[in-house]
Amino acid sequence: MSFSRPQVSSRHPNRTVFRGVPLTATAMICALLLGSTVARGEDMTRLWLGSYVFDPGVSLPSLPDGLRLDDATGTQPWIVQFSHPIDERDRTVLEALGAEVQGYLPDFAYLITIDTAHRATLAAVPGVRWEGAFQPAYRLSPQIGRMELRDPTRSSAAARTLVVRVFRDPVSAADLYRSLGARVVEIIDHPQEHLVVIEAADALLPAIAREPLTWYVEEKPETFLLNNTTKWVIQSNASGSTPIWDHGVTGLGEIVTLMDSGVDYNSCYFREIGNAPPGPAHRKIIDYSLFGGVAYDGCSTGHGSHV
């Protein structure tokens, strides 16, 4: 595998040009990283849902008041656990019954969304060991309230800053959270996941978790620099010496052309307000050309986005 050095081709206020090309070697590495699931050599009948670990065929956990689904009518998130390692055939059967498969839950379970009428058919699916509600309690991170915050404005605030992953339609989800009393900070409609960033008091958490669109709620992590003290290493390898920056080359006002496996231009590093696609008016990526590659980051490890 070979890579060419990035070249500064022209100057423009703080923007970057990415060019996506197919990389056979990169694709091979991605395939190898997928690996295979290795059984842990133990009884694979439990569900592992954060702080709730239980065998649903034996007993269900006791849940706090307000964090149970007392009325599960309509389209709701649901868990379907099989008695065998699941594969594409199981997924196909669920989808044929009207379920939308959202993801995998350990062990041997799918997280789906499905309406009341179609849920009645789940128990008759061959191999299904248990099916039941994805309870609101399972959707709240056990780390909420345990984070040590450096920002005094957050640590002293009455409301927490939360990231809510939703199953679909983050705009509608944001409206629901507003109606509950939360303040919507940001809506992120990403091809791989839909997020709503909100500020909400702890008293609102049960109501937020009970909403059918809610997948998972966690406290937004703080971001801060960790490598700002080693900036001299790749510039001079002499402590404190930054000759590249000293010549005014800081990335500001420069256009760099890169060729790699593609870029996730909706990540926080590149995303434009409103999720606008790359183009001349984009704040970071003013051009995105394909040379037989993909229109997005085509590597599961995010190689192009990292580079």
TrEMBL record:
Swiss-Prot/TrEMBL keywords: Hydrolase
Listed GO MF terms: serine-type endopeptidase activity
Alphabetized PROSITE patterns for the sequence: SUBTILASE, SUBTILASE_ASP
UniProt protein name: Peptidase S8/S53 domain-containing protein
Organismal lineage: Bacteria, Candidatus Eiseniibacteriota
GO biological process entries: proteolysis
InterPro entries: Peptidase_S8/S53_dom_sf, Peptidase_S8_Asp-AS
Protein family: Belongs to the peptidase S8 family.
Claim: Magnesium is one of the keywords in the record: no
Hydrolase as UniProt keyword: yes
UniProt source species: Eiseniibacteriota bacterium
Domain of life per record: Bacteria
